[in-house]
Amino acid sequence: MSIDHLKSKTKSDQVYDFLKEQILSGAYKPDGRIVIRDIGKQLGVSDIPVREAIKRLAADGLLEIKSHSGARVAPINTDNLEEIFLIRLELETLSTRLAAKAATAEEIDILDSLVRQMDESIVQKDLDTYSLSNREFHQLLYRASHAQVLIDMIENLFLRSENSKMVFHYDPDRLLQSNEEHRAIVEAIRQRDEEKAAQIIRTQKESGFKIVLNALRISKMLQGNTPAN
Q1: What are the tens digits of pLDDT across the range 33-46?
Q2: For domain 11-73, which CATH number applies: 3.40.50.300, 1.10.3720.10, 1.10.10.10, 1.10.10.60?
Q3: Which of 66, 118, 163, 215 has its CA 20 to 30 A from that of 75?
Q4: HTH gntR-type domain location, by residue (predicted)?
């Protein structure tokens, strides 16, 4: 795979985007080692842009850099995650409320298109595509608030917590319910109903965060890191 054909970004930016997607999608697992030379060879770039991208990802909290073992995907910290989810719940509820006022017609149409893409992914049982579309939906949703300070705060917390979702398997029934909630959010925004949009996203996030935290606790018990009661 080469990224030379992508001229709109620097090679460092392109490597950063590639590695970030691999981490957030779960392709790179927590504690997994990142080998600079292997990444450079895979993407057709020198070591320099890979090193630059790794430093940025470490600053984002997605990677850890240790002097003797190099870069590794940051482990999932359940204690920190609970706090992050609590803050994300409040910020994303606020951003959705603001999006109901500020979203452009084009943004609403794109949100609607992503819902339809997720419908198709569910039918095709394509969980990878569903996960990607779901992430794009929520990123566009908070960016549609057009409140840049708020967006920056959410994106920082998003990067530090999104890879936690790799610990549980998607339930088809839950996917259907979740996408109906997405559809209702889009309709509420189209109607400029701030309260309804905020309530739906809050309920969805509370449920989703609880599922992830429970899955993480079970995973830790199965690994013997936490004694079962």
Answers
A1: 999 999 999 999 99
A2: 1.10.10.10
A3: 118
A4: 9-76
